[in-house]
Every structure is written in C-alpha cells, then in structure tokens.
C-alpha cells in the first residue's frame, strides 16, 4: 500500500479538494490562540517508579512552558524521560509510577487528578500519537470503528453523525477515499496510513495539545516527511500546540519552533530552535549534535552516540548528572546547576557553557 | 489515481471461501483423516495385544477349546488382524461399526443414545464453565491483585488441584446427601421433561465444569492483564478518554478471546474423555460408561468404536476452534500483507 503515500507525495502541497472546511466555526475546533498564551506549564515534575522497594527516578524536576499553537521538540538520549514525562501529563503511566510536582494545562493542575477526572481530559485537552502504528491500533477492530470510538468519547453524537465526523477526520489527515478505508482493518494499511489513522484518532477530541512520541521513527524517510508536513499543517490549521518527541535532530531543527533537551529526567537546555542550534550552550547538547555543524548534516540524521554511560536512574549522584561524561566538568559541578535563563529566551543548566563557535564563513573557509 | 490503486484491493465477501482462513481449515480437515485412521489402527492393535482370546472371555473359563474355536470362527476372530481391521474400516466408512460381541446389537445403535447423553453433559459443562469464567476473569482483570482477583485466584488454584472424582463425591455429599436438593445418581431423559432432565445432569455437569471454569478464569484473567499492561493499542484506547470497562471489554477482551477460543477447542476434545469417570460415578448412561462396560466384558468392537468416537470429537473440536478463529480474526480472514 506504499502507493498511497506516493500518491500524496506526488501531489506536493495542500490538496484543498481532499478536505472539508474543518477550521470553520462549525468544526468546533478552538479559535486560533492569542500569541504568547501559556498552554502548558510544567514545574518541577518528578516521576518515580517503585517496584519491590527499588526506585527508578525517571523524571527529576522537569520544568518548561509551552505556548499555545507552538511546536516544541523534546530531544535527548533514549531513557532520558521524554516519554515518561509526557505520559505523566495524560495520566497514562502504570500504577507503579508516582508523579509529583506541577503541570498546569490552560490553568488546570493535572498532577494529582483522579483517574476519572483525567479520563475526561484525555483526548479532549491532550492527545497522543505513538511510535509504532502497527501495535498502536487494535488489530481486531475496523479503523473506522476505532476513529468513531474516539469521536464518541467526547461528543454526544449518534452513530451516523459520529461516522460522518470520523470520515471527516480521515479526510483531514489526507486518507485517500476515507469512506472505503473506513471498513478496513489496520493490517490492510501501510505504516504511513496507519499513522494517519492514529492522528485522526488523536484529533477526534479536538485537543489543544498533540504529543507525537517518536511518531515518525518507525516510518521510512519519505513517509516520515509526509507525516511531519501533515502535523505542521494541522498545527497551523487547527491552532494546536504540538510536542514532538524525537531522536531525529533534523526533524527538530526543520519543524519545531522550540527545542527542549532532556538529560536524566530533566531539562538541560531550552530555547527557540534557531537560537539553540546556532548557540549551543550545554555540553550535553554539544555532544548530541556532534562536532559537525548542523547544516552539514544529511537530513534525518539520528542522534550520535554520546560517549560514556547514561546515569543510573535508581541512584542519581548529587551535582550535575552529566558531569561524569563531561570534558568541562570540575569541582563546581558537584553542585547541581539550575536550568536558568542566561540569555534572552535561552535557558540552560550548566556552570561551563560552550562559547559560540567561530563565525560561519570562517568555519566554511576551514573546510575548503 | 486513488481509484485505480483501490481497484486492486481484495475485499471480503465472495472471496471468503478462497480466503486464507478457509484454506487453513481445509488443510486441517485433510490432516484429520490420518489422525483418526492412526487412532483406529493403534486401538485395534492394542486390543489385539491383550492376552486371551475374546471368545474365551465371552464363554468363561469352563468353556472347552472346541466351543472357543467355534465362537472364534463365528465371530471371524480366526482371520488375520490386518484383514479384520480392513473389514472394520470398510464398514466404518459406510457408517457400520459392526456388532457388539456381547449383546450382538449394532454398535451404532448403542452409541446413538449414549452420545446424546455425553454430548448434553459436555455442552452443559462447557456453557456453565465459560459462562461463569468470562465475567469472573473480566472482574478480576479490572482490578488486578485486588480483593476480587485474589479470591478468584484462590478458588481457581483450589479447583485445579482437586481431582475430578473427589469433586464429584463432594458435590454428591453436599447437594444430594446433606441438602438433598439434587439427585445423586440416575438419568432422566429429555423426553420426561427439561426440568427433571437438567436436575439429573446438574451435579455431573458441575463436576466437569468446575475445573474447567477455574482453568478458563486463570487463563483469561492472565491474558487480559497482559493485554492491558503490555499492548500499545490499549494505551491508544485509554488515551482516547474512554472508560476502563470499554477498554477492557471492547479492546482487551476482543483480543484475548482468540487465545481463549484455541484453549477451549483443545479442551473440548479432552473433555469427552473426562466424562468417563464422572458418568461412572453418577451412573449416567453415556459413552464413557459404555466404554468402561465394554472393556470389562472384552467387547472389543464397542471399545474400538468408543475410542474412535473420542478421536473424531477431539479432531472436530479443534477444527471448530480453527474455524471460529478464521471467521473472527480479521488478520486471518483477509490475509496479511
Ligand atoms: N514502567 C516503568 N517501570 C520502570 N521504569 C520505567 C518504566 N517506564 C520507563 N521507565 C524508565 O524511565 C526512564 C525514562 O524512560 P522514557 O521516558 O521511556 O525514556 P525516553 O526518553 O527514551 O522516552 C528509563 O530509564 C526507563 O527505563
Ligand atoms: Mg520514548
């Protein structure tokens, strides 16, 4: 079924004929937000997994702010707490997890909500798209039924209205011939099409924040680009904020407005994408980016492997958790550096920030 | 463009009979033939190995060698075993399973009524056990390791460790002797009223159903919890904001049901064998009782027929499970890419 993706790739930009006008008033999607309105404010978020007396501190004082309608990329090594911290926002962690701290969504505190309160908000405030579209859809249920279920979770619609809405959502994610696709099962679709279904499900409750947790990692490069274009387009059309969790630096640089770098369950550097990639301050981010300037990279470069071991989350030492792997570390790093705004709009947690690289033309002169 | 892409897709409906699921069932059906043949050959061979001639057994120890010889000739027991087997097979294929050596009645007549009794027993046990196991497992999996789950765990483990006949005797002791609400032995045919018939079947069906109930509950509860904790589609369902029962029943149970169908199919086959002891205890005129009587009287023709019936039922039960699976699982129904 790869052919479907190619059809869309060949079509290039937006095909207006494919979708009904969904951002109009009758769609029910929220009006585009005012600039700078805080949608999500995470403060000192902590997640601890406890099992048989052993504790894993997966998230350790994560703080960030996300404005409505923006796309924030969260990057970091595997195990740095990207997934756990975002699942905590939706109450989707197993019962072994204890969440503390604060996460306010449009002014409402999410931490400490009961399961019933949280359930009413899932899908309606925050929705999520996961990495593996093959495993994320129920293999025994028609895709239409799965979308309809999401539609009816939050809207009191009868069957026919819910079905109509589900078909609309499938067109919105540019599923070709959605009425026909409606009755098919997930295994009859390509990976890219399955991920479109996942996005349609996520959009069903008209969320103001969509979390895409490695949503394109399992797809081939062409499909990956199509899904990313779709996410960006939906972000703008629906005025929806997006958290893009990714291993792919190229993805973060090309699509996100803001970038948050996570290490050992906390934020270590946070800035607008241009700022962060032009003026890397945190040695860990530097290591993630490697020595090569970003522009020289092939598109869709995966994070290079940072030398050394990630810290043991069951016994975090005092001080900066990156110090054991850091070339600039000294005795000052025994004190944990806070994530502070050192330059306008640029926050980092380090006592020894990396100075700016030489001017770009000097660098290109070196290479030639 | 999109239309041409879609034209090449295969759809359900008329193509159903050639679907991969149906091919699977066809293959299984072909495999069933050698299985039933093998069982019949093995039984025939083992029955022939039993020392002493059947004629001697039938006539008793005082019979003269001449009498024995005459009976052997009459019953055709003097002919080579291979020929006798082929004779039997030829008859069996046309629905003639021979005559009982003892009563001289056609074996098919003997089997007919008794199969109905055993069949009713098995179906009742099966309906009771599954009908109770599904809600129990759902309730237990809804809150794993909480009170209800723990109690059901203890009940199941107890039930699985108690032998069938011990349970049967306990049931008789409690319901027939102490409370005197149900008959301990005897069978009332359906022709004398459904109520009386069910009352006579209640204790034997319960004796067979209880261990099955325990097993199905454990199996289904475990599979449901695995689905709930380990499967991504469950997280997707929860992330939609639907309620926990909807996640459990519409998503997890739907997937766990496939495992359960397979287990039930395997079980149903051995279940008919499990009726032998219970029919004996409750004096039910079923096929299990018939087989035990036939073994005692060395009525090999009847024993042979009973064993083959058990084999056919086991094979058919598995086939039925495959068929259900093929009908229910879209991945098999429509084939995988
Ligand atoms: N259910 C769980 N029980 C115990 N530890 C967990 C669980 N889920 C995640 N973790 C741990 O939490 C840490 C962060 O995981 P995660 O957020 O998935 O990382 P990533 O940044 O790769 O998404 C990892 O060390 C992981 O082993
Ligand atoms: Mg992850």
From TrEMBL, chain A:
Residues 1-27 are annotated as: Disordered. Coiled coil: none annotated. Its main location: membrane. The keyword Nucleotide-binding applies. It is a peripheral membrane protein. Keywords: ATP-binding, Cell membrane, Membrane, Nucleotide-binding, Transport. InterPro entries: AAA+_ATPase, ABC_Ni/Peptide_Import, ABC_transporter-like_ATP-bd, ABC_transporter-like_CS, Oligopep_ABC_C, P-loop_NTPase. One of its GO terms (molecular function) is ATP binding. The keyword Transport applies. Residues 42-289 form the ABC transporter domain. It is found in: Cell membrane. Pfam families: ABC_tran (PF00005), oligo_HPY (PF08352). PANTHER family: DIPEPTIDE TRANSPORT ATP-BINDING PROTEIN DPPD (PTHR43297:SF2), OLIGOPEPTIDE TRANSPORT ATP-BINDING PROTEIN APPD (PTHR43297). Belongs to the ABC transporter superfamily. This is ABC transporter ATP-binding protein.
């Amino acid at each position: 079924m790869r052919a479907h993706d190619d059809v869309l790739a060949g079509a290039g930009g937006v095909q207006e004929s494919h979708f009904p006008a969904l951002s109009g008033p009758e769609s029910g999607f929220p009006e585009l937000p005012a600039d700078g309105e805080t949608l999500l404010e995470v403060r000192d978020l902590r997640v601890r997994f406890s099992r048989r007396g052993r504790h894993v501190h997966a998230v350790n004082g994560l703080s960030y702010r996300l404005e409505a309608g923006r796309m924030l990329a969260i990057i970091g090594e595997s195990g740095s707490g990207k997934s756990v911290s975002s699942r905590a926002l939706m109450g989707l962690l197993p019962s072994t997890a204890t969440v503390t701290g604060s996460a306010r969504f449009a002014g409402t505190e999410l931490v400490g909500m009961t399961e019933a309160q949280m359930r009413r908000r899932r899908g309606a405030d925050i929705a999520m798209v996961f990495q593996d579209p093959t495993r994320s859809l129920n293999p025994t249920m028609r895709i239409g039924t799965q979308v309809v279920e999401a539609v009816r979770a939050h809207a009191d619609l009868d069957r026919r209205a819910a079905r109509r809405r589900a078909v609309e959502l499938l067109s919105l994610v540019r599923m070709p011939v959605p009425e026909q696709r409606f009755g098919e099962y997930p295994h009859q679709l390509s990976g890219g099409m399955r991920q479109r279904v996942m996005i349609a499900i996520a959009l069903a409750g008209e969320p103001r924040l969509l979390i895409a947790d490695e949503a394109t990692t399992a797809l081939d490069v062409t499909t990956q680009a199509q899904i990313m274009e779709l996410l960006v387009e939906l972000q703008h059309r629906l005025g929806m904020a997006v958290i893009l969790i990714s291993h792919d630096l190229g993805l973060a640089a090309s699509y996100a407005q803001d970038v948050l770098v996570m290490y050992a369950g906390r934020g270590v550097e946070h800035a607008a994408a241009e700022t962060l990639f032009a003026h890397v301050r945190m040695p860990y981010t530097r290591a993630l980016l490697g020595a090569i300037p970003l522009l020289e990279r092939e598109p869709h470069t995966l994070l290079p492997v940072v030398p050394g071991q990630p810290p043991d989350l069951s016994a975090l030492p005092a001080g900066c958790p990156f110090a054991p792997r850091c070339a600039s570390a000294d005795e000052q790093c025994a004190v944990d550096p806070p994530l502070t705004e050192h330059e306008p709009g640029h926050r980092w947690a380090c006592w020894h920030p990396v100075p700016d690289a030489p001017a770009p033309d000097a660098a290109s002169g070196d290479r030639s | 463009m999109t239309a041409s892409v879609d034209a090449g897709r295969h759809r359900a409906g008329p193509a159903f009979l050639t679907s991969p699921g149906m091919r699977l069932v066809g293959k299984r059906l072909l495999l069933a033939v050698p299985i039933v043949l093998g069982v019949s050959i093995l039984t025939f061979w083992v029955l022939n190995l039993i020392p002493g001639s059947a004629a001697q057994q039938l006539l008793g120890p005082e019979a003269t060698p001449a009498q024995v010889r005459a009976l052997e000739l009459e019953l055709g027991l003097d002919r080579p075993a291979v020929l006798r087997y082929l004779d039997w097979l030829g008859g069996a294929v046309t629905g003639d399973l021979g005559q009982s050596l003892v009563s001289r009645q056609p074996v098919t007549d003997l089997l007919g009524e008794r199969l109905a009794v055993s069949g009713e027993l098995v179906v009742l046990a099966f309906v009771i056990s599954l009908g109770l196991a599904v809600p129990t497992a759902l309730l237990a999996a809804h809150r794993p390791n909480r009170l209800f789950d723990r109690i059901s765990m203890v009940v199941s483990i107890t039930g699985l460790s108690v032998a069938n006949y011990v349970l049967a005797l306990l049931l008789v002791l409690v319901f027939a002797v102490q409370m005197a609400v149900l008959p301990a032995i005897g069978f009332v045919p359906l022709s004398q009223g459904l109520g009386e018939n069910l009352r006579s079947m209640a204790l034997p069906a319960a004796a067979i159903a209880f261990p099955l109930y325990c097993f199905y509950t454990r199996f289904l509860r475990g599979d449901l919890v695995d689905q709930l904790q380990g499967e991504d589609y469950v997280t997707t369902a929860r992330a939609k904001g639907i309620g926990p029962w909807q996640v459990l029943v519409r998503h997890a149970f739907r997937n766990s049901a496939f495992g359960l169908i397979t287990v039930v199919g395997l079980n149903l086959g051995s279940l008919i064998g499990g009726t032998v002891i219970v029919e004996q205890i409750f004096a039910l005129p079923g096929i299990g009782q018939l087989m035990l009587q036939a073994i005692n009287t060395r009525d090999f023709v009847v024993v042979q027929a009973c064993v083959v019936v058990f084999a056919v039922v086991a094979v058919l039960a598995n086939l039925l499970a495959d068929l259900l699976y093929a009908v229910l699982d879209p991945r098999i129904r429509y084939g995988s890419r």
